[in-house]
Amino acid sequence: MIKKLCSILIMALICVGCSSGNSVDDSKQSVLETKYKSIREQKNDIGEEKNNTSTLSQSNEELVKIGFCQVGAESGWRNAHTNSMKEMFVEANGYQLSFVDGNGDQSKQIEAIRSFIKDKVNVIVLAPVLESGWDDVLREAKNANIPVIIVDRMIKTSDDSLYTCWVGSNFKAEGLNAVEWLVGYMKEKGKENENHKVVMLQGTIGASAETGRTAGIREGLAKYGNYELAAEMSGNFTKAEGKQAMLEYLKTNKDFDVLFSQNDDMTFGAVEALKESGIKPGTDVIIVSFDGVKDAFQAMIDGEINADIECNPLQGPFVSELIQKILSNEKLEKIQYMYESIYDESVAKQEIVNRVY
Length: 357
Hints:
This protein is of the alpha/beta class. The protein is about 40% helix and about 15% strand.
């Protein structure tokens, strides 16, 4: 069951339009419809896209100016995401990149976008720290005729014409898939009819990755009467805060056997907290994590994480492809999904060599 789930290939490119509230129609994308693609194929795609993009500088006399504002550097996933962008948007590929690290501060990100507008960049790429509060500055970009691509986390706006498209993951589907993996795992272990207490370690409250994964996990668990969601607490997507949140919970509550942790850095902190509290991670508590960084694969090999739902940070080549289409006046779908997979302890050893982040 688990190996089958791990071998299924993810949502290659499911593009659906946004409503005025920018919500994805989840009824059109059930877990069973979600397709998976292996990291080896993704790496091949990246190489091909780099080759295609490298001709851009040869066909344009001037470099394409890109303004990219990142959330911050709160995790290994985020650093891989930043590096993917920086490696793609170089002069050799026909680009001139202006990069700003938002350090988790929305006001700094808004200031960065205004500086990009003043500098008359060709395209703005934004990884937003929060979902709301972007309308005014994005309207300024629209009035300056500068297209905006939102990456990773989604935004909420009353006017979806303020941005060209969004690139990232279906976070709710990730949550649903995490639950389905867990149910299959428990069945394999002969524990499908036992009662299970679940704890969820959430990311930054209000970020689309948090809201989507939380919604998916809640909805998925609600289908099974023997799974109780006993607690939810935020670790803010960082190792330190993930550890602290788990330590605080463990002071009064140790009676649970499943942990969903919404990113790998929080998971690493939670693993430390469990060990310090005399609980064996991966055995006493089944752990399902999100992101799929290389260190998490090692943790699966070591038996401390049971499964990891990949959230692919290698968005640079795909965003470059979209930018070329924008500059060619091609119409784009609002929602652009990345290629992603589910991995667990049964395949971690053979797959770790394929990790590039």
